[in-house]
Amino acid sequence: MSTPSIPQSPLHQDPVHGKVVAITGASSGIGEATALHLAAHGARLLLGARRRERLDALVARIREQGGEAVAQTVDVTRHDQVEAFVGAAVAHFGRLDVMVGNAGVMPLSPLDAGRVDE
């Protein structure tokens, strides 16, 4: 005998569903896996990295599975590109709920030094 499924009420819906999430470093590895996981839970995604062809392939894969995603090239070492990336999420989706900073940047200093230009 199978267990009946519990009907989904607004209080029991997946909290990720419908959230707008921007992910840097999304073209491979943890960023790609995060994008696929969030898309499976109904997040609306803006995917960023330097390798556009890999981003486009990931967007196509997500869309084929019924998800919603767009890609934008971004180099997180360039402040103007990061600002444009966030702006693209707002322009396309109307808002940004979550930013996942997954791109590989490694400043060699204590975090509290606030060094962001390296």
Automatic annotation (TrEMBL):
Pfam families: adh_short (PF00106). The keyword Membrane does not apply. One of its GO terms (molecular function) is oxidoreductase activity. One of its GO terms (cellular component) is membrane. It comes from the Bacteria. The keyword Oxidoreductase applies. InterPro entries: NAD(P)-bd_dom_sf, SDR_fam. Keywords: Oxidoreductase. Belongs to the short-chain dehydrogenases/reductases (SDR) family. This is Short-chain alcohol dehydrogenase.
